[in-house]
Amino acid sequence: MSVATRSQSTEPDTDLPERPAVPASGRLHSLRRFWPYLRPHRTVLVWATVLAVLSTLTAIVIPLMIARIIDGPIAHRDFPAIAGPVALVGVLGVLEAVGIWGRRWLIAVPATEFEITMRAKIYRKLQSLAIGRHDAWESGQLLSRAVDDLATMRRFVAFAGPFMCIHIVVIPVGLLTLIALSWQVGLIFTLISIPVTAICFRFVRRYEVASRRSQDQSGDLATTAQESAQGVRVLKAFGRGAYFGTRFTAQSRELRKTELLKVRLDATLWSAMRSLPQLAIAFALGYGGYAVAHGTMTLGTLVAGITLATFLQWPFIWTGFLLAELNDARTAADRYWEIIDTPVDIADPVDPVRLPARVAGELRLEKVGFAFPRTGDGAREPQDRVLRDVTLRVRPGETVALVGATGSGKTALLNLIPRLYDVSSGAVTIDGIDVASMRLADLRSLVTVAFEDPVLFSASVRENVALGDPEATDADVLRALDVAQATDFVNDLPWGLDTRIGEQGLSLSGGQRQRLALARAVLTSESAGQRTRIMVLDDPLSALDVETEERVQERLRTVLAGATTLLVAHRPSTASLADRVAVLADGRITAEGTHEQLLRTSAHYRELMGGTSDPVDAAVGAQSSTRSEADA
């Protein structure tokens, strides 16, 4: 988390259904759904598979050549005649090696491009899903699907899938060739395939369940690890590291049990796949030796049959591994499509309203009601309403402070304006246009948001501040930092604007993180072009000490002067920035007026601002009790 890391030059750079306990058995539908994304590479995939089949078939031809050599030149002691067949065996061996190399070389590019394409698709889907959907999902589960499951799919596309096609061809051809050499040996191998098939079907049913359980448990484990790493300061401060360590260990043990079950199933299959072909080879040796001794089989035929039987045991053995990979891939595909198939609750309208070149910026909330959706059990029924019939008008260029007790719905109300959530009833309009009728890109380019809990990324200071405007110059960034009173501490960082601030910005103080987030909002609002901007600020100064807050307010007044602003305020000093204050209680606007008017007329407002009946004492008392944080 150290800040002393130079920024690298990089390109700046979806509630989900309840996961099933057991996936539907025997279905390959989820795997078939990937075909449209593989179709552009179908020529390469087909040629790679054909090349692999041909190279594998050479391994069947080689035993036939050996039989001719033994029964021909060697049996007749015609050693000069050996050179040609031996050379041909060498050529076949080289062709087999070239085929293996060619298959790997051809398959590498489409397999990795497929993985990249599907990761980009799931990333876009996650970005398109509403915040309510994300709230219902653990981050580790999302990471597991986007990283581990797609790596499993890549391995299937590059290896397991093609080899299953290869074995479908090689095993029948090999058995027919073996029958042609010796029908008795070929028959025993064919009979052995019956119990092998039964074992495979039993394996598929049981391994499928264990595979899904394992991948879900891996996602839960990743969530715990990620939360423990991000919250390490809290765990240390409260001495709860051992508790989370115990929970992590318990989850690891559960995953271990599932993995051991997979190993036992896999071991049982591999043992059967190894032992049954070996029994067939033993029969071939016994019968072949007897037949050669009695002159009913040539030595060359015996050697070729044993060589071919030894070769054929490996496709049988590898069938077990390929079935395990198939089940892992099918489970990964099921988990992947669970996310992709999640409905997008907040999307562009079918016929969006085109915004004028210049927007006046009047913001209205008209009888707005809102309830968070229930997501824990996969249902979408709303919970109790947080907001009820909220009506509020913010005039163009006006700043309105939203004040209310904790849990009154202030942040939820702010989230409705850029459509991070949709209203349950009523409407939010800008210049009389319902935000639900606008393109999301247009709406979110018009509305600038700064959250109370600042979210920073593992990138440079410059990249974090210019997140909303990648074309911003250093001068733009520095001007925004100056408004947020962040210039001094940024200059003190090891590489200034190029300093990487670490994951979540935890190497910075709370006040420093909040000022960088505020600078980001300021820069984004100033880059809005000719459109009058709308700013939505969720208590942007809560982590600042009084002195720093005063300096930021002086600069911020200039920025807010030309913007339509709705901000959440908990301090009198922040509320005094506003032209008007709206008090939110019990999900409704219960009072409106200037800060001074409400101090005189609203007992509830006075209580929120300092808990005294005297307006002057309320302001002074609230200032003196303000939280203070060192911003070194």
From TrEMBL:
What residue ranges are annotated as transmembrane? 44-70, 82-101, 156-179, 185-204
The ABC transporter domain, residue ranges: 363-611
UniProt keyword list: ATP-binding, Membrane, Nucleotide-binding, Transmembrane, Transmembrane helix
Note the PROSITE patterns from the entry. Answer: ABC_TM1F, ABC_TRANSPORTER_1, ABC_TRANSPORTER_2
For the region Disordered, give the residue spans.
1-23, 610-632
Q: What is this protein called?
A: ABC transporter ATP-binding protein
Domain ABC transmembrane type-1, chain residue ranges per copy: 46-328
Q: Primary place of residence? A: membrane
